[in-house]
Amino acid sequence: MLRLRPQPRRLRLPRGASGCRTLHDQGVWGYQAPQEFTLPDFSPQELANRARNASLLRLVESYRRHGHRAALVDPLDLAKRPNVPALDPRRYGFTLSSDVAANLRDEFVSDVKPLEQVSAEGDKFNVEGILDFPKSTGGTSEERTMDEIATRLAEVYCGGIAYEFMHLPSKHERRFLETMLEQSHAKPLEPEEQVAHWQLLAKSENLDHFLAKRFPNVKRYGLEGGEAMMVVCATLFNEAKKVGVDDVVLGMPHRGRLNLLTQLLDLDMKLLIRKMRGLPTLPPSFPASQFTDDVLSHLFTTTPYTPPGAADPLTVHLLPNPSHLETVTPVALGFARALQVPFSDTDSLGERVLSVSIHGDAAFGGQGVVAESLNLANLPHFAGGGTCHVVVNNQIGFTTASTQSRSSFYATDLAKMISAPIVHVTGDRPDDVARAVKLALAYQRKFRKDVVIDLIVYRRRGHNELDEPAFTSPTMYNRIKNLPSVAKLYEDHLVASSVLSSSDAASFRSSHLAALDAVIPEADPTKFTPPELPMPRGWGDMRWPVEGEWEKPVETGVDEQVLREVGMRSVEAPSDITLHPRLVKMHIAKRVQSLEKGEGLDFATAEALAFGSLLLEGDHIRLCGQDSGRGTFSQRHAILADQASERVAVPLQSLGSRPLASSSTSSGRPVGSFEVVNSPLSEYAVVGFEQGVAWVSPRLLPIWEAQFGDFHNTAQVVLDTYLGSGETKWGMQSALTLLLPHGFDGAGPEHSSSRIERFLQLTNEPLTRSPFVPNMHLVNVTTAAQYFHLLRRQMRREYRKPLVVFSPKGILRLPAAASSLAEMAPGTSFQPVLTEHVDDPSKVERVVILSGKLYYELVKERQEHGLDGKIVFIRLEEISPFPYAALSAALDPFRKTARSLIWAQDEPSNAGAYTFVAPRVQQVLPRGVKLRYVGREAMATVAPGVKSYFEEGRKRIEAEVFEGL
Ligand SMILES: Cc1ncc(C[n+]2csc(CCOP(=O)(O)OP(=O)(O)O)c2C)c(N)n1
Q: 277 CA to middle of ligand 1, Å?
């Protein structure tokens, strides 16, 4: 006999006063409780009716759950529609009239018969608490025949829109959707709205025809077949404006981008024509030497859009994206959230900003970053108030059929991972498209959660206009060939219903085409120059740096008394928070002690001082990464947890709660916000998100910290296409700052290196010393004060630059790497090169240039070898832009006497900074003096996996550095 094992006792977690874990629920800036919307439960009378009419309830629930499978949502109708016998009322014992039974679609018909019938033809059923009918169709009566019920269910759930929402765990959400659908699923559209939609479709089609004629050899990824995307966007923007949205943030790929930009948004057609002709669209003040501009299908805009009848516009931000599909998705999410910072006291997230994310069907299912991005939707520091996702599902990738693209039934199945409702609609029925969008938006407004529209369309031509799709998809393209265009179909429908006249339609089309034709001469380069780009909203105080400006030190020192107080406040927990005793002893007491002395400040303290002083000056900070609240090395403790309840406090966040006793460094701005984010275990989506955040305001320091620097490369696409090259392609500045723990300590191939060499490859640093504007800064700092200055420099310049810090691991608490308050005081600043004090430079026989923590290990060895004074170490703290002048000055005292010059590194020779540094160091050396490499030989992995191998390698490096002295 099967015996059930006794259940193990449940593990009890510490619980807050409310009975549930409160970590992050209170006390961390940036967290907002999800918007609650509840519907009343069924009344006792309704519940009784549901119990009495259980078979009817089962039938209705079947339609809600399975109806989408039989809906008519594929304009090509190529796939075999599945049989869904669960939709046949007779399967539940009901009788239908012969007329209604004859009308049942094949997919519904069940072959299970005969059944004992629970009803006779014409019997009425009480639908109270089971099925909603529109108020207009039946007065107050809740009694309906099975014919009425079956017809209604098929209309609502199996028409041109298919709904998936029964997987939603919240009964309030399910009931909200059910009620909306059942009461008003086919609400007619106003004729004006229909005409406006038709005009959009016609304009989009016209644009594609016009460009095909005028520029037949340019790939533009036209929208033909998928024009309903225009209706989706127009409906979203128009409806969003009606409910008070001010900004729509839009991330989208190539398909139909030009149609949207020029035919709904107001991107100047002359810019499009310039791009078609291979000319830049950035203005002449963005010279080619510094700005590479970007391709046609990456055009972007921030533009006002005034919906028909609206008094004023909302702003649509269609963000720049690279070719890498879906990379823009998390970027746009970050942008949408950051637009809401500082958060309003009265508006909940999403109140004034709507995030819209458009995807292709192949990319949505295929690109992992989509799953990573979806996972951000409801997380405390990533939620933006709900995104409307639109999958423009043309049922094919480049040439790959959807059956080869995904393992799931629908292109959108992935979104079920976050329990988002999904609405499938055919793009051939623009009225249904608008209805689907309105439903999706209504859900998003009520619950401020993600929702998905699967817009099922087709692609009339190849992936691009130079392809022949029939090579690979002959059946599909045979079908497409015979389909009238979407605009034509809708035009016929509107003409038949007397909403539009054929002559008006024809004259609209021809005058629009004439307007397009007229742009060609106007866009002639002799007549038209791209207009100047104003700094984006909020960036008015910023300017563009000039060549060589990076070499000027930036004043970043702060009054010592202010710093001391900020430091003390950084570990001050509210009195009702009980801290872990070890944390008090090891972290807080030590910090307090070092601040009192004004010496021995470790990296984490320096960071807290940089953060706190920036906040006092009115800058906002967002620090995001895996376990960043505590810090990978348990060094930061920016978030303190109460040992009884897990309630948390972020001391630096409370800096503004009472004034500092010492004179303030305040800029007159209110104290900034400090958002500390323990991110999900994603790099790609999270770094993308932070890039979006970085673009919104120059007053926010966006920091992403890797758990270990090694893991940044799962976000490589963002680093290549945004961090490194966003400014040069799109003329947009960003202060995105990466902290990548880096250091060779025997931790193995994947916990040692942030791959300095790869970031060096991403810089625009010229091969030879010449003035330039760097695209980013790469640093490897070795003292706490240097780190302090560096973080502050990010915000104290009049322009913004990405910064990559190969940040410390082992030296975080090393006394030798600690700094004094005096090293952070007014008059001090970041030093790109650190050199050592030498009593008698003439005695120095060897100079070793290096970067990072190897310095401290070699200093120790030098002492042990008794070689102080004979060998000097010069630390390259900023690797790029390469500090020629500072390095040259550091070498000066030893030029005459030093017999040898070494570059030493922990990394293998095919990694680290050597190949970048060597030719540049050479440029500040006299002729004939050669830089020698000391480090590991080239390796297939960056560090050995065995501690003893690592130590052998280290010993060889040390031996070579000191050899012959
Ligand atoms: C990450 C990435 N891989 C490959 C490509 C090459 N590529 C460009 S479009 C495309 C097909 C996209 O299909 P889908 O997502 O359905 O969008 P559609 O073009 O059909 O609208 C491919 C494979 C790319 N741009 N990005």
A: 24
Amino acid code (one letter) for 622: R
CATH code assigned at 726:
3.40.50.12470
Enumerate the H helices of 629-707 as residue ranges. 684-696
Which atom of ligand 1 is the closest one to the Cα of 326? 1
Residues 121, 89, single domain; the answer is yes
Picking from 184, 218, 246, the residue at the C-terminal end of a domain is 184
How far is residue 195's CA from residue 498's CA, in Å, rounded to a whole number? Answer: 11
Distance CA 134, CA 805 (A): 61
Output the CA 317–ligand 1 centroid distance in Å: 22
534 within domain boundaries? no
574-591 as b/e: b if 16+ CB within 10 A: eeebebeeebeeebbebb
Helix, strand, coil percent content, the chain, rounded in steps of 5: 40, 15, 50
pLDDT in tens, 520-560: 999 999 999 999 998 999 999 999 999 999 999 999 999 99
Query: How far, in Å, is the centroid of ligand 1 from the Cα of 301?
Result: 22
Same domain, 469 and 572: no
Q: Which residues line ligand 1 (CB under 6 A)?
A: 255, 323-325, 360-363, 392, 394, 396-398, 463
Question: In DSSP terms, which residues pair with 741 in a beta bridge?
Answer: 807
Whether residue 244 is contained in a domain is answered as: yes
Domain-located, residue 756: no
Q: Can you tell me which atom of ligand 1 is nearest the CA of 221?
A: 19
Of 317, 321, 312, 387, residue with least CA distance to 349: 387
**Rounded Cα distance, 534 and 266, in Å:** 17
C-alpha 368/C-alpha 351 separation (Å) is 29
Residues 6 or more apart whose CB falls under 8 angstroms from that of 20 comprise none
* Neighbouring C-beta atoms of residue 662, cutoff 10 Å: 14
Based on the domain organization, do 793 and 881 belong to the same domain? no
Q: Which domain holds residue 375?
A: 191-522
3-state secondary structure of 622: strand
- Judge contact between 53 and 42, C-beta under 8 A: no
Same domain, 98 and 53: yes
Per residue in 659-710, pLDDT tens?
888 866 567 789 999 999 999 999 999 999 999 999 999 999 999 999 999 9
Task: Using the structure block, give the residue that is written with the tokens 């550095």.
Answer: 961
Final residue of a structural domain among 157, 184, 211: 184
The residues pairing with 819 across neighbouring beta strands, listed in sequence order, are 601
- CA-nearest residue, atom 23 of ligand 1: 398
Cα 360 to ligand 1 centroid, rounded to whole Å: 7
In single-letter form, the type of residue at position 850 comes to L
